[in-house]
């Protein structure tokens, strides 16, 4: 296998991996503020793509994306307020089932609002045939957009958590909600905010990736599974580790087709997930305590 | 004696329905009732797992598929090997399901909460992918032209029109027996151990209950229920497709158990029989998946113990 | 007094019960389509087309003076649902025939049942195994994938292409295509250097195509019926993989071209003439049928026609022709007359059935098309 082919796999893996990473980060944000695994995370990418495509027919692309991101963020808030916020100390099993049910409802609603057809946002720069040379492999410029947007979001999030009052409050909330409340932090608003951020980020990633992967009403489920794999691989709750985990999973998946039959490509990510869960549930970068 | 009430009720209803349908010349409804019986078996097994062992499984459709595909392959492609006793493919299918459940149960059941949920989801996905990628399993087209199986006493497990009533009773007898077994299990020492485990694993272990062994046993048992359902349905439908292992199917089973009440096998049977029957008749039209999604959300929000819940399965953080 | 009241009531009741027997019985037709679920982009146009045709037929007096009652079931592409609905339609609704199912897997699940229970089944799925071996009661209307493969190879020979790569999706349609391509390639002097089966829900095929590219192929054939058909051309161009791309007859929907944008230019594929109905010469036997259907469908549903909807059209056409020819709805007579239909002009081609041929189409039914300026055009 030549260096060019290897590089092509690498680039392909990094592209899909960064999308997985964003989903994983979304999982982490919500998990750290509420302890809930939000199975509907993948649907936010789908919504971002779908809404922006619908809007893009009647307004400039940037505006369509901005509105789609905000609307999806609000959908996330709505889901949290309507279905999750008023539950008192729900059991883990109950929450899992609720979020699965919510992801199904969002998906089916999307099917009936938009129908089953596949849609794609216009390329942010260039078009479907644009091709950039990167050291011997060729990629679409959209790939750079995806990587750039992902990096930007991760950077902004890190700054937010480390250097803003709200961000630090959210982290306090995550490590000990009672203590946080005792300090006067409004935990319930922060939970709502975390849903907004997770949903909005997902939507932006969905818009970035839509020209490449196309958007369809049922794309959320497998993204959720892969995203969860990354979240767990990096250690649940560890935002930045999810990025590394995402890239790793993406690249392993892409490279796997050179040795395994292609039919088993999706199994790779699942096998990684199972291996991590069985042997090191705290993830590559987490600590034992966090996994309880 | 009171605990057997659901079993007797079920048996009575089963017979009554058949007689009634025969009287009003609507025996064609027996077809979907028979199919829903086999799906109900899966839900019943899952009820034991979720309600009494407190373990969630988002991949139970995988066991249904393993049971189904095993008997399908043995009855078609590998039929020559079993020509002396075709009915052996049924126990073979059940055995295969039990073995797989045992093998994956050991590592999977060490997990809890979200991790367990995701691991079982991954299992279901993997089964689905393996089926889609393997020529022996017919890949995307599934396996068709599966013959009926001649059982004892002249009974034949098949979808043939003229043997409808017979197959209806075969299916629902299996469910009734399954329910009887479940009810017995719950009322026995094993059941009490399970409830202790569900309530608090550490406390149960401290009291000397071999938590790991019990969880594994229930996991395998629930898988066997699913495998039996799958194996029998394959012969009734004369075939099977890869959709049976899908995520949506697994989620449906969970929805049915949650709605019926995780602590109530009788409730699970009732809800599953009705909803599956309606779904198979297309009563939900284009909203089939949405109905189950709404069911999940609605039940979990407003009636987490299910419609017939007897055991407060989900109250409070564990 | 009371006796008279009773007598009047009985008379009235008798009259009410007697009336339906004077009105002509409707002709009941069942349909099983994958209206939602993964095959929805095939099943939805099929369902709409059939509904539209039935409504139109009923508006103009029905068939043989009888109204048509259509019962459509959504199987979501699931074989077990298809089986359940088939039994429901046959045993409960007592339909004359079943149109559908949409996918090959479901059709194979129903083939045995339809044949054993002597029910007419007109499938809209592509697999050759549906009519090969022939089952007395089972017909199919889409063209044979073997013809599509051969049409592709004939064009390749003209272009001097000898070494190709094949990528297919893991659906029944894709697998069927793979089998035909691999079987017919040697006879046409073409080497298939590499074959890869990708998942139908795949969203990025650059890695697979990189593998294909490394084999130094002169052309790529993609055989699938999902949106991946738009991904392959885009990924290829983005990777700088500029060899000719051939698609299967599953590409027959302008939505795929729109989704692929400029990357779709120059794709070559075999298809029924429905997609180029407007540019057919007026003398072409299919012109009238095609333009009429196109106008009706696009006018009613405000979306472009696809060849999938065309299959439902053809199935309905065959069935109604069979009923007319048989002069009634005796299922044995209708089946026999369908088997004997000749020269029926449908959207996929001109049908000529026989006891050995339950598909009725030949290689002629395919036209090689290409994409020019975002539109379908005849090739070359």
Written description of the protein model:
- The complex is a heterotrimer of chains A (292), B (318) and C (380).
- Chain A is mostly helical and 292 residues long.
- Chain A has a domain at 20-126 and 137-218.
- Helix content of chain A is 72%, strand content 2%.
- Chain A has helices at residues 3-34, 41-56, 61-84, 92-114, 141-163, 165-175, 177-182, 187-213, 220-234, 239-256, 265-279, and strands at 132-134, 137-139.
- In chain A, helix 10 (239-256) packs across helix 11 (265-279).
- Chain A is globular, with a radius of gyration of 19 Å.
- Chain B is mainly α.
- Chain B has one domain (2-247).
- Chain B is built from twelve helices and four strands.
- In chain B, a hairpin with a 5-residue loop joins strand 2 and strand 3 (156-157).
- The model of chain B is unreliable at 313-318 (pLDDT under 50).
- Chain C has twelve helices and 14 strands.
- Chain C folds into two domains: 27-143 and 288-363, 3-Layer(aba) Sandwich (Rossmann fold); 145-271, Rossmann fold.
- The N and C termini of chain C lie far apart (88 Å).
- Chain C has helices at 2-18, 40-59, 79-92, 104-116, 145-159, 172-184, 206-213, 228-238, 254-260, 287-301, 307-326, 331-339, and strands at 27-33, 68-74, 97-99, 120-123, 138-140, 163-169, 191-198, 219-223, 245-247, 268-271, 344-345, 350-351, 367-372, 375-378.
- Chain C is of the alpha/beta class.
- The longest helix of chain C is centred in the N-terminal third of the chain and has 20 residues, at 40-59.
- Chains in contact: A-B, A-C, B-C.
- The A-B interface holds A 37, 83, 87, 89-94, 96-98, 100-105, 107-109, 112, 221, 225, 228, 232, 236, 261, 263-264, 266-267, 270-271, 273-274, 277-278, 281, 291 and B 50, 54, 56, 58, 107-108, 110-111, 113-115, 117-119, 121-123, 125-126, 129-130, 132-133, 247-248, 251, 254-255, 258, 286-287, 289-290, 292-298, 300-301, 304, 313-318.
